[in-house]
Specification:
phosphoprotein; oxidoreductase; Flavodoxin_fold; Rossmann fold; alpha/beta; NAD(P)H dehydrogenase (quinone) activity; FAD
Length: 231
């Protein structure tokens, strides 16, 4: 939709990968709609995943005993976080929609993306206490996960060996994104692209592009335990 701003946080090492294709088609389709699209290509940026005292550029508020959460909160208020964190926070702040594109690692995100969440979504920027879940500081924004899996769809159902895919979405969509106030759109999961034919992969990319045509009309999921675990 013209005038909307989108941030794609992208975590894959290979530009020609299936994840790369999903990211590229999202950039193309959203740009075609007149959106402004920014991409944080975390591996290409060599993004630092570790939350350390180097993230605070000024004096520590409690130098004798280091608490990352406390120091990041104080530094956020004083604008003395390190420049790479501030740059990412600015992109998030400007975005109407934040999209995460990544392959599933151990039912979760790759380490570089986990580090992005740990460092960028700090207290004072993404949430406060009080100021979380429906009152999170990023309320009014949309978020969506676009994930690729190694295993086929039937592995990720209630009776499948991996359980329902919604179980592993709980910490990401609810415990992270909803906690920070995002309204969460239904995830887009591309199952087992490595085992699909070239034709099938093209179809998976096309279905993502097709969904993005009407993404601004979608209603967020009811991000609460029943959506994940049933009644």
């Amino acid at each position: 939709m013209a005038g909307k701003k989108v941030l794609i946080v992208y975590a894959h090492q290979e530009p020609r990968s299936f994840n790369g294709s999903l990211k590229d088609v999202a950039v193309a389709e959203l740009s075609r709609q007149g959106c402004t699209v920014a991409v944080s290509d975390l591996y290409a940026m060599d993004f630092e995943p570790r939350a350390t005292r180097k993230d605070i550029t000024g004096a520590l508020s409690s130098p004798e005993f280091f608490s990352y959460g406390v120091e990041a909160y104080e530094a956020c208020k004083k604008r003395s976080l390190t420049s790479d964190i501030i740059a990412e926070q600015k992109k998030v702040q400007e975005a109407d929609l934040v999209m995460f594109q990544f392959p599933l690692y151990w039912f979760s995100v790759p380490a570089v993306l986990k580090g992005w969440m740990d460092r960028v979504l700090c207290q004072g920027f993404a949430f406060d206490i009080p100021g979380f879940y429906d009152d999170g500081l990023l309320k009014g924004k949309l978020a969506i996960l676009s994930i690729t899996t190694g295993g086929p769809a039937d592995m990720y159902c209630k009776t499948g060996v991996s359980g329902d895919f919604r179980y592993f979405l709980w910490p990401l969509q609810h415990g992270t994104l909803h906690f920070c106030g995002f309204k969460v759109l239904a995830p887009h999961i591309s199952f087992a692209p490595e085992f699909a034919s070239e034709e099938e992969r093209k179809g998976m990319v096309a279905s993502w592009a097709q969904r993005l045509k009407t993404i601004w009309n979608e209603e967020p999921i009811p991000c609460s335990p029943p959506w994940y675990f049933g009644q």
